[in-house]
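During the reporting period the student researcher (J.K.) took over the structure-prediction task from the postdoctoral fellow and processed the backlog of single-chain submissions. One of the processed entries is reproduced below for the supervisory committee.
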Amino acid sequence: MYIPTLDSVTVGRVIAYFRQKSGMSQEVLSGLADIGRSHLSAIERGERRPTLETFYRICTAMNVKMSTVILKLEEELAKEKPPKQL
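J.K. obtained the following structure tokens:
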């Protein structure tokens, strides 16, 4: 059974998706979530992994339930194809 890896790029891509969907800039979201804009930018690029606390603050600032973001993450992971067997 193939179990996809929850990588930081996918997490960042999903956070960016919800941020853009809500019509917020990184500047606005980072201010509402009380994190640095460069930190949020690094998360969205997959260069940093948000802690659970930071993830919660980002979701709350976007007015999106954490569970909604998690479901989207699971959808994205389900799209991954298992590596081909040699």
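The committee noted the following: The CA atoms of residues 4 and 79 lie 9 Å apart.
J.K. will present the remaining backlog at the next meeting.
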